[in-house]
Design the sequence.
């Protein structure tokens, strides 16, 4: 059962609170912090606790918990980048991912570490400030202790644990609190919100060894890189891509673990671009001729999509010709073969049949490749200054093509920043 009712607006009753971080363990000194690294890495918990400017993961001492230290860049668009850091996003990310499976949104509020609020749950009609605590095992005594130390600004407590006993579950759900048992159960009862549902066990979701393993990972990465500074909600992205929220959540969680996106799923590291580039290449089909202009029947058969570029799926001009149209420092001569992305294998085969296959690459007038991600042929660009008069692939996808040439292509990328309205992410 998952229920979200509109709250009456009454403030939560006051609760006894003890100063200290929402993540701190009972035996940790108040205000104890630890230094953060400038890149993702693992550090022993005790080593981290001895250093300044660290917010503890909140795992029991002696646990084998991994401290995720991820770099965050203020901008991915300019040469002048300052570095900030976030530490131990794993617990909060687990909760965000689990809620996303139920179609619920949650995000980390600004200044949460000062207010003792770790997450804001937004059900569309109710906003609930949550304090999140991490434990290995939650018994009745652990649950009682956690309830006594609820932060004053938090409206409800949510404990994340490898295992929550039945008694502890009852205590939490009857006291304006809840739990996320990583074996596959999420429950929360607070003002205006009642959640009691099964979610995928953590062990099943943590098997993704690479963020981009599988086609969906590439689709998500491409979407994020097109608008790198935009905050992205799991449910919105899943709807846009036509993928399940749990799968999208799993990929985003893997990207966060690698330090490539932040807690709000904005891109923080150019490594994501190069990771996508490594998986971007698709085979070319060499064509003997270009589609003749003005042939409506052929245009429809080949799904060129040249009538309404902004709203139709269709062919997208890419590689050197498109790069030159965008103003990249690349030479493109008249008569050179044009490179296109096409929607699918059916269109690729049909193009070879209707336009003829070139006997050699040197004799080709055009090449067609299947788009590695649907956004390539769905988010095309009409540019008035384009001398070829073909819809262009988004600058991101043109850059990914250039990146396939480890020599000249990457030299071009080093000296090319797309015009206003587009982001440089390499």
Sequence:
């Amino acid at each position: 059962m998952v229920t979200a009712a509109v709250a009456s607006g009454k403030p939560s009753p006051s609760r006894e609170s003890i100063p200290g971080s929402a993540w701190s363990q009972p035996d940790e000194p108040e205000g104890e912090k630890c230094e953060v690294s400038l890149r993702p890495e693992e550090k022993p918990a005790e080593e981290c606790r001895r250093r300044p400017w660290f917010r503890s993961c909140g795992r029991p001492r002696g646990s084998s918990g991994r401290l995720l230290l991820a770099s965050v860049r203020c901008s991915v668009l300019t040469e002048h980048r300052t570095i900030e850091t976030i530490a131990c996003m794993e617990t909060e990310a687990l909760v965000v991912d689990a809620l996303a499976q139920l179609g619920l949104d949650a995000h980390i509020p600004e200044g949460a570490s000062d207010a003792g609020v770790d997450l804001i749950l937004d059900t569309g009609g109710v906003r609930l400030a949550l304090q999140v605590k991490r434990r290995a095992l939650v018994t009745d005594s652990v649950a009682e202790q956690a309830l006594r130390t609820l932060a004053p600004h938090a409206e409800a407590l949510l404990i994340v644990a490898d295992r929550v006993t039945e008694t502890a579950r009852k205590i939490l759900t009857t006291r304006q609190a809840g739990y996320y048992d990583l074996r596959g159960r999420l429950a929360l009862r607070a003002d205006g919100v009642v959640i009691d549902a099964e979610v995928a066990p953590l062990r099943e979701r943590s098997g993704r060894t690479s963020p981009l393993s599988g086609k969906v990972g590439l689709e998500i990465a491409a979407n994020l890189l097109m608008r790198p500074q935009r905050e992205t909600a799991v449910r919105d992205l899943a709807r846009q891509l036509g993928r399940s929220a749990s799968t999208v959540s799993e990929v985003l969680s893997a990207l966060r673990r690698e330090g490539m996106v932040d807690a709000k799923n904005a891109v923080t590291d150019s490594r994501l671009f190069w990771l996508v580039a490594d998986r971007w290449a698709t085979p070319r089909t060499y064509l003997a001729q270009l589609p003749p202009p003005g042939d409506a029947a052929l245009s429809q058969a080949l799904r060129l999509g040249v009538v309404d570029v902004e709203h139709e799926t269709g062919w997208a001009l890419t590689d050197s010709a498109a790069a030159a149209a965008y103003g990249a420092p690349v030479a493109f001569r008249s008569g050179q073969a044009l490179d296109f992305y096409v929607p699918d294998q059916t269109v690729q085969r049909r193009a070879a049949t209707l336009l003829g296959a070139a006997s050699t690459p040197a004799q080709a007038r055009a090449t067609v490749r299947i788009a590695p991600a649907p956004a390539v042929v769905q988010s095309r660009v009409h540019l008035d200054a384009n001398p070829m008069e073909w819809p262009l692939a988004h600058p991101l996808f043109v850059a990914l093509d250039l990146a396939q040439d480890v020599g000249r292509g990457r030299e071009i990328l080093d000296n090319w920043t797309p015009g206003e309205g587009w982001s440089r992410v390499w």
The two ends are 45 Å apart (CA to CA). Residues 20-88 form one domain. Residues 45 and 67 are 7 Å apart (CA to CA).
